[in-house]
Every structure is written in C-alpha cells, then in structure tokens.
Amino acid sequence: MAQTKSISLSPRSAAITQLRKANIPLIIDDFHYLDRDFQGNIIRALKPLIFEGLPVILIAIPHRRYDAVKVEREITGRLESIPIPTWNDEELLEIPNEGFPLLNVHLSKSIGLRLASEAYGSPHLMQEFCRELTSFHKVETTLSERLEIDNISDELFIKVAEGTGKIVFDKLAKGPRQRTDRLPRMLKSGETADIYKVILLALAQLSPGLETIEYEQLRAVIKDVLIDNIPQGHEVTRVLEKMTEIASSDEASTPVLDWDKEELKLHITDPFFAFFLKWGVEHQ
C-alpha cells in the first residue's frame, strides 16, 4: 500500500531551502526602505547562505550602504560596497551635444557647462533644462536655419524648479495632518512660518545640493532665518523625524531627505529637491 509523506515548512524556511538549492544571486532593492528590525531579520536569516557563498546584493541609497553591518555585525568583512557615481559634467554634456545638433541648434560651450553645473549630476535635470530651452526658443522640429544659443536667463532654472520639487516641498512644509506645533514664528523677511516651513527655509538658505548636513550647521541657519522664538533642539529633531516619515511615504523609490537620528545628520538624496531648494523656494 502506497504511503505519502509531507513536510510542512514555514515560508522563511521554504525560501531559504529554495535559495540554497537554486544557488542564484539574491537582489533586494530599496533595502534602505525596510524597518531596521526587519533589516536585521532578513540579514540574520540569510547569514548562513552568505557564509556558504551565496551572493546577496542590497541596493540602497549611498549613506545607508552599511545598514546591513549595523544590524548584523557578524557579516563585517563580507560586505563589499560598490558605489554608483552620479554623472560627471562630461557625461551630462553628451545630452545637449547629441540632441541640439539634430535640431540645428548650437549651444555654446559656456552655456553647456553652466547647465551641467546646475544639474547635480542628474541626467533628468539636464534633460529638463534642454526641454525648457527648446520651449523658450519655440523649437518644435529641426530648424531650417541654425540657432545659436550663447546666453540663458535664471528664469530657465526658476521655471524648471517650479515643475520639479515644489510638490514634495509643499508636502513637507505642510507637515503631518495633526501636529501640536503650529506656532507662527517671525522670519527676518517679515513673514511668519511654523517650524516645518522654517526648517525648509533654512535648508533653502544652505542650498546644500546632494550633501550631508550636520545638525549644528542646520541649527545655526535656523537661528539666522528667525528673529526670535528659536525652536529647541528636541523640536527640530522631532520635526526632522516627521519629515523623513513624510518623505518615505512618498511614491518615489528614494525619499528626498533622510534624517539619521543616531549620527545627527540630515541627508539630501534627491537632485530635484536639492534643485528646488536652490532655485524654487525664493521665487514661490
């Protein structure tokens, strides 16, 4: 008489068993999005396979590249960081240098370099600049006569900023639906703003680009933005935590900013948001 045996495995055990059997690389995208405890659970579950030689690739934003080591110290020495750099000026210039001649448009070298310097290493921003230039000069198809572009106005950058980072800026400025601190604070500009807007205005004054901002550096600029009623340290850090939550809930794969409460550092991670801080805030 035939007999049937079955083994019931938990989803975790079944997944590990199949990974061991298949022995193919495992890729986890947006690892930075996972809660720290969940990150730890994943790495600890995968640790035996990693020690056996299974390649595990974690894709994360640069300043979070060592999250795996922070949650599981035993894999120290088994983690290799492979940075993916932003585009340099030469690479960014390939976009206008290849595209504009097809339209019989010549962009001067100095203007091309200016656009590259404002793009924060983002090809998408460079494309936006080029699109706005063609729109300004009403170039819709290849021109019969060559057009020379040897100057641009700051209005180009202001207009591009309006269409890029404004939505997320406004979302951060609004803050959570319910918050206790709605105290209006007097700005040196003569206007008033609550603490969420104050912090964003301080960031705009810094125009940091895609950089890491030390907490004390930000606090100093907040004091410079306000006349009085300077927020306490715990108020600033609380709002930065809330802003990170709001940014993380956005549909983008990478939050535009990320507050590291352990290191007391604020990371600007999105070039469109950084660009809006420089060009869009002052002209709202």
Distinctive features:
284 residues, flat, 47% helix, two-stranded parallel ribbon, mainly alpha
Description:
The structure is a single chain. This protein is mostly helical and 284 residues long. It is built from twelve helices and nine strands. The protein has a three-stranded antiparallel β-sheet with strand order 7-9-8. Strands 1-2 form a two-stranded parallel sheet. A two-stranded parallel ribbon has the order 3-4. Strand 5 and strand 6 form a beta hairpin. Helix 9 (195-206) crosses helix 10. The termini are far apart.
Q: What is the number of helices? A: 12
Low-confidence stretches: none
How much helicity do the residues have? 40-55%
Give the C-alpha Rg: 24 Å
- Overall mean confidence score, pLDDT: 89
Number of strands: 9
Distance between the termini: 81 Å
Assembly state here? single chain
Proportion of beta-strand residues: 5-15%
Structural class: mainly alpha
Shape: flat
Strands in their spatial order, largest beta sheet = 7-9-8
